[in-house]
Amino acid sequence: MNHTHKEVLASEVTHSNLSHYEQAVERFSWKEIESHFTWYDTGKVNMAYEAIDRHVAEGLGDKTALLYSDSSREEAVTFAQMKEQSDKFGNVLRKYGIGKGDRVFIFMPRSPELYVSLLGTLKVGAVVGPLFEAFMETAVKDRLEDSGAVALITTPALLPRVKREELPLLKHLILVGEDIPEGEGLLNYQKEMEQASTDLQIEWLDREDGMIMHYTSGSTGKPKGVYHVQNAMIQHYYTGKVVLDLREDDVYWCTADPGWVTGTSYGIFAPWLNGVTNVIRGGRFSPQDWYNTLAKNKVTVWYSAPTAFRMLMGAGSDMISEYDLSHLRHVLSVGEPLNPEVVRWGHKAYGQRIHDTWWMTETGGQLICNYPGMAIKPGSMGRPIPGVKAAILDDQGREVPPNTMGNLAIQTPWPSMMRQIWNNPAKYEEYFRIPGWYISGDSAYMDEEGYFWFQGRIDDVINSSGERIGPFEVESKLVEHPAVAEAGVIGKPDVTRGEIIKAFISLREGYEPSQELKDDIYRFVKEGLSAHAAPREIEFKDKLPKTRSGKIMRRVLKAWELDLPTGDLSTIED
Ligand code: WTA
Predict the structure, then answer these.
(1) Residue 335 Cβ contacting ligand 1 at under 6 Å
(2) Is it true that domain 461-562 has CATH number 3.40.50.720?
(3) Which 3-state string (H, E, C) describes 523-535?
(4) Is Acetylation one of the keywords UniProt gives this record (predicted)?
(5) Closest ligand 1 atom, residue 441 Cα
(6) H or E element: which one contains 68?
(7) With 226 labelled, which of 13, 141, 219, 384 sits at a CA distance of 20 to 30 A?
């Protein structure tokens, strides 16, 4: 790929180099990408082999794979060490009879052990399910129950959130850290690793065998288990090359946690398939800490999210001069709309235009992107990467003319497309209701030059700080509170977070609205489900708008909130 993006930065919109894109599309072949993988010749597939072991076999064993740091720990792990550690962990799982197709979940803060156990899980052919550390009891239980996980890797601190008595299939808990409690089914990670052999026979798989599950929210029902297969690695490797622009000597930092899809597809797979050094920073966001992480590690490629960039923008440009960010070559964003003013600020502050990328948990990898060699239009998500066709369809599945809003759809298949919604084939089919297309649930339009512009969600899914939250999951938790009779939850526009969660609540007999009650309800969701799902704003109402069948009309709540016309109310209760 040649690197024309520096020139493109000179003007905001250049049309002159579009031909580069047309050529790339013209020349493109997935087969050619596939020929990179060892399985192209051997037929034996395993993501962990391609991401780690093969680099060792090719003489890169001493290269740093992981540069880990948090406030109390700093560690560099080479590819050879990562291979050895994950081989050991694979043997730990095998010792307990865990293997191909079993679901093994990981619930812990970022640490080298998280990455070792994730890779070790893949090595024995099990399907890994990473859970975000902020999940509380209900969120953890729903996911472990639905997936039928047989093992969980976690820490003593998080163990109380795992309701083992309600999870009969969950046989083994592997505990990482100090002061490991003893008991039935409780295993000590460190002790097990000390005893494990480094000699592991990798489980060779088929391209369509399972690899990873991420739970994500829709507008109805509990979170869905989005199931991805080994074949997804084609997309991870390829987009790592052309979108992240990864080159041999890069030091790459993706700020996402592996509990979300960005933290695995682009926090683990894409960088390691491309054999680059991967920076992982544990702990919470702080501008000083983040700039320090960029400077200290000499990060060259940085993938983050609009909320983070907005917070960095809020922290001001002055502090940036205290850090040496001269190694940065390429900056990218995902998860929510990237405001044009943030793109412009990024250009001034870092000398880098932030490249927006669009994709979803379900798509497994990037699909519509701004990448080197392409003119950027600030505010646009970019164009489909070569090998992918996107379109705007009306509700009947017909392509609409340019600049017309409609359903953002992707032509099927592409390598990292999800292969199942776990236990829910009907939900899966809904995405593919128009033959030949995947319907994203986002609305967008395409301009005359084939650039896509995000407009919003078609359903009620909330996007707060780039995290996808299903209103149903929050509402279900809210009505468990003794004071709450009914609850309806919407996303309320917010300058920093994109959206915040707002709950409309009607109270049970005997309860009066008060600030204390609001605080208590907030805490109840935060402690039961997770902090990011708790409503930052609560409004009490005597009655909530409902359909005759009793469904709360979030559309009306949203209209109230935004002072918009409420639209067709013919189905409302009274
Ligand atoms: C939204 C994250 C605008 C969108 C990888 C999508 C975006 C949902 C962008 C998926 C973007 C993601 N511009 N909106 N560049 N990227 N979204 O599954 O609504 O957590 O459907 O995947 O985030 O969120 P998910």
Answers:
(1) yes
(2) no
(3) HHHHHHCCHHHCC
(4) yes
(5) 21
(6) strand 64-70
(7) 384
Distance from C-alpha of 124 to C-alpha of 126, rounded to nearest angstrom: 6
Which residue ranges make up each domain of the chain? 79-229, 461-562
DSSP 310-376: HHHHHH-SGGGGGS--TT--EEEEESS---HHHHHHHHHHHS-PEEEEE--GGG-S--EE--TTS--
Distance 218 CA to ligand 1 centre (A): 13
Of 463, 465, 467, the residue with max ligand 1 atoms within 8 A of its CB, to mutate for a pocket test, comes to 463
Q: What is the pLDDT of residues 467-490, one digit of tens each?
A: 999 999 899 899 999 999 999 999
How far does residue 442's CA lie from ligand 1's centre (Å)? Answer: 8
* Angle between helix 306-315 and 340-350 (nearest 10): 60
The low-confidence residues of the chain, meaning pLDDT below 50, are 1-17
- What is the DSSP annotation of 247-290? -TT-EEEE---TTSHHHHIIIIIHHHHTT-EEEEE-S---HHHH
Check residue 396 and give its pLDDT.
96
Cα–Cα distance list, 327 to 249, 250, 302, 330 (Å)? 12, 10, 11, 9
Q: What is the CATH number of domain 79-229?
A: 3.40.50.980
Q: What is the predicted ipTM?
A: 1.00
Would the pTM of this model clear 0.90, i.e. be above it? Answer: yes
**How many CB atoms sit inside 10 A of residue 504's CB?**
27
Q: Is residue 463 within 6 Å of ligand 1 at its C-beta?
A: yes
Return left, alpha or beta for 379; rule: phi > 0 is left, psi -120 to 50 is alpha, else beta.
left
Instruction: Tell me if 478 sits within 8 A of 503, measured CB to CB.
Output: yes
